[in-house]
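Good morning C.,

I know you're traveling, so I'll keep this short. The sequence:
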Amino acid sequence: MKASESLNVDVAIIGSGPAGLAAAIELRRRGQQRVVVIEREAEAGGIPRHCGHPPFGVREYARLYSGPAYARRNVAEARKAGVELLLHHSVIQLQASGLLELVSPTGPLTIQARRVLIATGARETPRSARLVSGDRPLGVINTGALQNYLYLQGLKPFERPLIIGTELVSLSAVLSCRRAGIRPIAMLEANPRATARWPLSLFPRLCGVPMHFGAQLLAIHGTGRVESADVRMADGSIETLACDGILLTGQFTPESSLVRLSHLELDNGSGGPSVDQFGRCSDPTYFAAGNLLRPIETAGWSYREGRRIAGLIDRDLRGELPTAGAQVAIHCAAPIKLCVPQRLGHSRTPGLSHLQLRVAAPASGTLRVLADGREIWRRQIDVLPERRVLIPLDALHLPDDTERLDVCIDS
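The tokens, ready to paste straight into the viewer:
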């Protein structure tokens, strides 16, 4: 076996999506000398490379881009800033203190980084994790595969699919289908209303796609290819819908396999690494940003978060961030399913601007934050699953002796 080569860098960034590239550009702008972005695919740019539709880049570049054009712009800006891109390189192990083990077509590689940013993003939940019974025919894919077929390979995987889900990515799938001449037979949503905000949720109907709420995909049938699907409708009846494909959209989960196999602490609520208000992981050499932290935000949000975390990494390298030290864990009560960050230090040094929450079920009432049982912040909310809920961190004046922070919704 070929001996492992080694590199010493200031910052290694794992993932070349919007968060990773934005962070790399910002770090170079702030004067960090050797910034390396590690990407396992043949091209950099992340998920937007597969999204052949607008809108991308409006806030970043004051222009309206399609996903591939936006990805190319991000890559071009990174190269112009002097960022090193390692394509076809896969990180296989995160070691303590910023030591990374990689493999590539040319052999193994070891990188020793002063700081590491993990920005591996999120992925859609596959059929195997959705527990859908029936046959195993061709034509059951997720949105990422659809976009890859359409925009990178110029292929149509089906003509009349059944779409599962009503998230923003589900609406983009409808648009992609429409542009390719694909006519979805219907969209199914298990909840009583669409996940995407109104009026965006009207888009499928405007395209002539029927929407069934309170409906669940039970089984897929077909020999060779998808031929039909059994669906339980809201009234409890079972209908068999003729279709030639199943498009599984949404239900994103962080791409956290590296974290799960490492020494870093994983947060069970978000499925990503546990971080403090500076985006710092349990090993303070490591930081995280983008959709690895929570599924899922827009490319623009991830880009801005990557830039912000890059600024914090730069300050950390210059000795301007407080040490991790003792931190206060944040405890969330149902129906809150996740909170990012998951812990706070007592430092007044600015970091991330908000606590970001998601709920598992519709909730209405008073959102409260309690420090050792004493209320320090409240707000009335009416929120649905997968909607962003933000609590401004500068409004939380934690007493210096705080040991526990609770976040709850009182109906």
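Safe travels,
E.
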